[in-house]
Specification:
The complex is a heterodimer of chains A (about 400) and B (about 260). Chain A contains 17 helices and 14 strands. Chain A has about 400 residues and is an alpha/beta fold. Chain A has two domains: about 160 residues, Rossmann fold (3-Layer(aba) Sandwich), CATH 3.40.50; about 220 residues, 3-Layer(aba) Sandwich (Rossmann fold). Chain A has a six-stranded mixed beta sheet with strand order 3-4-14-9-10-13, sandwiched between helices. A four-stranded antiparallel beta sheet of chain A has the order 1-2-12-11. In chain A, helix 11 links the parallel strand 9 and strand 10. Chain B has about 260 residues and is an alpha/beta fold. Chain B has one domain: Aldolase class I (TIM Barrel, Alpha-Beta Barrel), CATH 3.20.20.70. Chain B is built from twelve helices and nine strands. Classes of the chains: A alpha/beta (about 400), B alpha/beta (about 260). The interface between A and B is large, with 34 and 42 residues.
Chain lengths: ~400, ~260
């Protein structure tokens, strides 16, 4: 195995019994992925099934208010509602060609679970999804969608009952079922080769966006802004611009409620190096190396670790990092919805909120590209909880 | 020869399985834990594996995960474990091995860990999330203090991969009997004989088998050329203690004649 590191981050810290299947995935990446046959089939699925390429959309109202041109890369328009499908179609196709019959996934917000379930259905594979019990409650619509697609969904009740524990359970399931099962890892983290595998499938975002910027406004953007949980939508966007040193890359993490001593989901900002889920990366942890619970209003950002390439890009200064609180993300959610008629996912709302909150520091008349990683339809239970009264939801429910 | 290998070879010379109980540090409470260590030491344990708790133990099943969570809530820490073994080092016959995940060891600091383990009289370390490819530097740091990094191999570990471990390891080789997490199982999996034969042909070190063992009769079904040299049991013991029973009572299952090797001809 040729383990990929990103500076001091990355690696493959897993039990020996997971090494043979990871070596198998690595081999498939080297031998199957580059073939014209694989690429053609994937491109066909991305174009004709998932709806790529996604456009970049100009925001006229907000641009006027903010004093610069705000562009959105519309991953919310990808089939099933988020960028996750770019990765799951790629991995499902790979799994099928590796002779696997089951796709296994962990999921936080449920978007990766839905995207895996859809890809599995499309390609005739079985699908097993692990999801934290707390996330099941706050993203129940996505659980229903997974089941409609025929997936088996397991609620994970151990630990913090969120994404971290769903990954633990998925790894345990994989250990028992490695002969038949491919672990369709959802973000650009985890043990080698997943950070690289997922980043490659997601890099279609940045590749398209770069060309679209040149075609649409004849320049590269001043900033590319994306939310970072595990960080797959962000790394997918950033990879298109890594060599363009003049383009600033901004990764936005979730600060949680922002109350002193409260939990957050911002290891790049507030964490320290450690090893979790197979890779060395930045983590929220105690001095004894126990993993701290994370918190974010956005289930898809609620994770105490982050992809290793982000940790590396932050250390080298290529990636800038910021943080946004729950309340500011909620405000951004409303502002984009009302100003532009686009309903952003609570995760993507963090990236938008950073732009809104830092508008004064951003170049007047410049071009700011936000990766709108997903749509907010799934977040209505959260919206009802926090904004339901303000929006008159309560009356609606009573009538029904 | 490393002390851990000596311990198992001693049992082999007596024509019995070496006995290696595992217990999560501080479980079910500090007093019972240290009593259990003393009991196991007196009732035939050759080596005792002590679990260092971690918040995210992916290689463990529900019994050990729950024990791990409980002792973390009770404030059990790696530094506390090391200090307490240092106090007792002269009173234990059995050799001590720490078993825990990479991150708590990393945060403690590898050089300091190796030195403090040596001071505490601890002979070996097992790190389930440290495969061969990542292990090199840590094995060297441990070796410099006389501590063996015990390799873990399983049913899907090829002879080629076993050889990688065999060429650099000391102490004993730990064979995981099933593709799965830790936990008691009724029967020994059918493929285990194949795995054990492969391990025995590759490793010159003694072979310990674990993951699923609760009583010695489980080993009797194995053909003689596929018998391990040592038996590790963890979840069964943890469960036994959780029910309020004593380690001394549990050890009686394995004591004396009961751990004698059966010659199946």
């Amino acid at each position: 195995m040729h383990i990929k590191y990103y500076g001091e981050y990355g690696g493959c810290f897993v039990p020996e019994i997971l090494m043979p299947p990871l070596i198998e995935v690595e081999r498939a990446m080297e031998e199957i992925m580059p073939t014209a046959d694989f690429q053609n089939e994937l491109n066909d699925l991305l174009t004709n099934y998932a709806g790529r390429a996604t456009p970049i959309t100009f925001c006229p109202t907000l641009s006027k208010e903010l004093g610069f041109n705000l562009w959105l890369k519309r991953e919310d328009l990808v089939h099933t509602g988020a960028h996750k499908m770019n990765n799951t179609l790629g991995q499902a196709l790979l799994a099928k060609r590796m002779g696997k019959t089951t796709l296994l996934a962990e999921t936080g917000a449920g978007q990766h679970g839905v995207a895996t379930a859809a890809a599995a259905a499309r390609l005739g594979l079985k699908c097993v999804v692990f999801m934290g019990a707390e996330d099941v409650e706050r993203q129940i619509m996505n659980v229903m969608r997974m089941r409609v697609f025929g997936a088996e969904v397991h609620a994970v009740d151990s630990g913090t009952r969120t994404l971290k524990d769903a990954i633990n359970e998925a790894l345990r399931y994989w250990i028992v079922n490695i002969d038949t099962t491919h672990y369709c890892f959802g973000t650009a983290a985890g043990p080698h080769p997943f950070p690289e595998l997922v980043a490659r499938f997601q890099s279609v975002i940045g590749r398209e966006a770069r060309q679209q910027c040149l075609d649409t406004f004849g320049a590269l953007p001043d900033y590319v802004v994306a939310c970072v949980g595990g960080g797959s939508n962000a790394i997918g966007s950033f990879r298109g611009f890594l060599e363009d040193r003049e383009v600033k890359l901004m990764g936005v993490e979730a600060a949680g409620t922002g109350e002193p001593g409260s939990f957050n989901s911002a290891p790049l900002n507030l964490g320290s190096p450690g090893v979790l889920h197979g890779n060395r990366t930045m983590l929220l942890q105690t001095v004894d190396g126990q993993i701290e619970p994370s918190h974010s209003i956005a289930a898809g950002l609620d994770y105490p670790g982050v992809g290793p390439e982000h940790a590396y890009l932050r250390d080298t200064g290529r990636e800038l990092v910021g943080m946004v609180r729950d309340a500011n993300a909620l405000a951004a959610f409303q502002r984009l919805s009302r100003s532009e008629g686009i309903l952003p996912a609570m995760e993507s709302s963090h990236a938008l909120a950073w732009v809104f909150d830092h508008a004064e520091e951003l170049p007047k008349g410049g071009n700011i590209l936000v990766n709108l990683s997903g749509r907010g339809d799934k977040d209505m239970t959260i919206i009802k909880k926090y904004l339901g009264r303000e929006l008159g939801f309560d009356a609606l429910t009573e009538e029904a | 020869m490393h002390i851990l290998e000596q311990k198992i070879r001693q049992a082999m010379a007596e024509d019995r399985y070496a006995i290696i109980p595992f217990l999560t540090a501080g479980f079910p409470d500090a007093e019972t834990f240290w009593q259990a260590i003393a009991d196991m030491d007196q009732h035939g344990a050759d080596i005792i594996e002590v679990g260092v708790p971690f918040s995210d133990p992916v290689a463990d099943g529900p019994v050990i995960e729950a024990a791990s969570r409980q002792v973390l809530a009770d404030g059990v820490s790696l530094s506390g474990i090391l200090e307490n073994f240092k106090l007792r080092r002269d009173f234990l016959k059995a050799s001590i091995v720490l078993m825990g995940y990479f991150n708590p060891f990393m945060q403690y600091g590898w050089e300091k860990l190796a030195k403090d383990m040596k001071d505490a009289g601890i002979s070996g370390i097992i790190i389930p999330d440290l495969p061969f490819e990542e292990a090199g530097p840590y094995r060297e740091i441990m070796k410099a203090q006389g501590i063996a990094l015990i390799p873990l191999v399983g049913p899907n570990t090829s002879a080629e991969r076993m050889k990688l471990y065999a060429d650099v390891s000391e102490g004993y080789a730990y064979v995981i009997s099933v593709l799965g997490t830790t936990g008691e199982r009724e029967a020994v999996a059918p493929m285990v004989a194949t795995t054990l034969r492969r391990a025995k042909s590759v490793f010159k070190l003694p072979i310990a088998m674990g993951f699923g063992l609760s009583h010695p009769e489980q080993l009797d079904v194995l053909p003689e050329d596929a018998q391990p040299d040592a038996a590790v049991f963890g979840s069964a013991l943890v469960k036994f203690l959780a029910e309020g029973k004593s380690a001394a009572e549990f050890m009686q299952r394995w004591e004396g004649e009961k751990s004698r090797r059966r010659h199946n001809g």
